[in-house]
Amino acid sequence: xxxxxxxxxxxxxxxxxxxxxxxxxxxxxxxxxxxxxxxxxxxxxxxxxxxxxxxxxxxxxxxxxxxxxxxxxxxxxxxxxxxxxxxxxxxxxxxxxxxxxxxxxxxxxxxxxxxxxxxxxxxxxxxxxxxxxxxxxxxxxxxxxxxxxxxxx
Length: 153
Description:
5 helices; globular
């Protein structure tokens, strides 16, 4: 697995978290690439407005490269590999918003960054929270992975 992008000081932590997520989800991340970037409030607000038509700062945005359902395995997307690498997509995190949320929820910035990165990864893997059942599933998976990773609330 490769994690690229501007994630100063968090690259190893996020990579390890994603590798644990792969184990829990029984996915093969050996030839997977994900881009994770920290951006400022203006940038994430612009992206949120441009792609979701919501003109406000948000905490995390995901831009999947695959049209994947949670029930599908990444092996089904072998034809999408370029130079034997499957690019899942981009995750964009607003660190300023993450700091505010960590304070609001009473936990560490590390925990909030891990939660947001994992949330983004789950979206890249086809999970969503549009309806209550899907939201419950996504939250359950995230809680399980974060607990195993040692950054529970």
